[in-house]
Write a structure and sequence with these properties.
The protein has five helices and six strands; from the N terminus they run αββββαββααα. It is an alpha+beta fold. The chain has two domains: 97 residues, no CATH class; 55 residues. The chain has a two-stranded antiparallel ribbon with strand order 1-2. Strand 1 and strand 2 form a beta hairpin. Helix 3 runs antiparallel to helix 4, helix 3 packs across helix 5 and helix 4 crosses helix 5. The structure holds zinc ion.
Length: 158
């Protein structure tokens, strides 16, 4: 898969380093049949792609891949968050990304936390129990009471 269309945006010598970053970046992105362009490299603790970006002063910093993709698309840095329309954290397809306002971010975060508590976190909690963690330890991990964990494990255990 070629991402040649994204090249040629940076022409000045000052942006030469950026060009190299972009080359390295797109090489680690693979288009999926569902339309998502998934990051093949390292992921951060939240499951977002983590890209080693070389700054103009020669130092390196980790950038979230979807955010970097959106920066390339917009041609600028931005203050808000990079949001997915596809809910695939690994996805770097600029067509699946939009710049969120602070308000949208807060609303989305609230929605995510609701989903998280009801399903994702519960699944994770149960997995931890299966792997021998104590209910007390799992409760600490999720910042809930031990009785909550006990409830989760019973409801799903039957
Ligand atoms: Zn996507």
């Amino acid at each position: 898969m070629s991402f040649g269309g994204w090249q040629g945006w940076s022409t000045s010598a000052r942006k030469q380093a950026k060009q190299t970053n972009e080359d390295r970046f797109w090489k680690q992105v693979q288009a999926q049949t569902n339309g998502c362009w998934e990051w093949q490299g390292a992921l951060d603790k939240d499951g977002y792609g983590a890209f080693n970006h070389q700054n103009e002063d020669g130092t390196w910093s980790i950038k979230k891949c979807h955010r970097y993709s959106l920066e390339i698309k917009l041609g600028r840095q931005f203050g808000g968050q990079a949001n997915h329309t596809c809910d695939n954290r690994k996805c770097c397809n600029p067509h699946h990304l939009y710049e969120g306002t602070q308000l949208e971010n807060m609303r989305d975060a609230r929605q995510r936390s609701r989903i998280g508590t009801s399903t994702r976190e519960r699944v994770r909690a149960l997995l931890m129990l299966e792997h021998g963690f104590l209910q007390r330890e799992v409760a600490e991990e999720f910042g809930v009471g031990q009785s909550t964990i006990s409830k989760w494990s019973k409801r799903d255990g039957n």
